[in-house]
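hey so u asked for the seq, here:
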Amino acid sequence: MARRKPAPVGPLPQRDGIDPVHVRLPPDGPWETVRAYLEERYGAAAGPGRVAEMLAEGAFAALDGPVTADTPYRPGGHLWFHRDPGPPEPAVPFPVEVLHRDERIVVADKPHFLATTPRGSHAVETALARLRRDLGLPRLSPAHRLDRLTAGVVLFVAEPALRGAYQGLFERREPVKEYEAVARFDPAVELPVTVRSRIVKERGRMDAHEVPGEPNAESRIELAEVRGELARYRLRPRTGRTHQLRVHMNALGLPILGDPLYPAVLPEPPAEDYRHPLQLLARSLEFTDPVTGERLRFRSPRRLTAWPSPADPVPPADPAGRAG
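ran it, structure tokens below
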């Protein structure tokens, strides 16, 4: 499949490690001015008069300079702008640890509760924005992503020209990814097992779910250790569907502790409860560097908080499979 031609580099700088929004004007349409198009596309969401205010403020920019209320519509043209800042994002009180950095890549150990990249209400408080600011790498980009509630190893690309080479590894499913999870122990579940199913994630629905049809998701589930009513599981996904490991563990009757979506979607709390993270960790990532040919392996030193150390008393598992 041919890669889409990248957008030109825009005239607006990043803000707090966040790229400006890029808009490609449609190749045809009834608009005589750029303002008319922006009002149609963004006017309802931005609120009455806001597009006009942003144009007056010089908030929109094209390759040849600021866009005004009278700028003619140019089919196929490019625009950039920064979204209006919303309410301050709650600071996720855990650091992003850097496991490796060179001129090509950055390998980070992402904490629970921190999104990998800006999306929805999470923008400044994301691993990508933090690393761009803290490391002084404004062109840093992700080679893949982890769910916001999942912690562990994530690969970022520091050299923009190499982004496609590293993303291609994941598109071809070449990296070896190993996860750990804590859930209740059920001796009736025969392990190890390879779970294959078709998983879909529908717009407007928080959880993903399995449906009949050709499998598009595959996970290897192994029992690593048992302590009392809890067990630590080793998970090796062959594919990367949204919430895949969480869905497959739940399908086995072993929902991961601390999961707010599986087996049932819980009401969203008024504030994030950082005491009970999802007990899922991207423990290691192994791949052959597409530039050097070197085999690389990176491992998170994090400890899942629900898993007792050998010296700790063994806690009982919540019968619903939640964290206590």
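The chain has five helices and 15 strands. The longest helix spans residues 34-46.
lmk if thats what u needed
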